[in-house]
Amino acid sequence: MPSPCRRPGRRVLFLLLALLLPSPPPARAPAPPGPAATLLQALGLPDAHRGAPTPRPVPPVMWRLFRHRDPQEARVGPRRTPQGTTLRPCHMEELGVAGNIVRHISDRGAPTRPPEPAWASGQCPEWTVVFDLSAVEPAERPSRARLEMRFATAAAEEPAGWELSVTQAAEGAVAGPVLLRQVVPTLTVPVRAELLGAAWAHNASAPRSLRLALALRPRVPAACAHLAEASLLLVTLDPRLCHPLARPRREAEPSVGGSPGGACRTRRLYVSFREVGWHRWVIAPRGFLANYCQGQCSLPAALSGPGGTPPLNHAVLRALMHAAAPGAAGLPCCVPARLSPISVLFFDNSDNVVLRHYEDMVVDECGCR
Question: CA-to-CA distance for 37 and 31, rounded, in angstroms?
Answer without folding.
Answer: 6
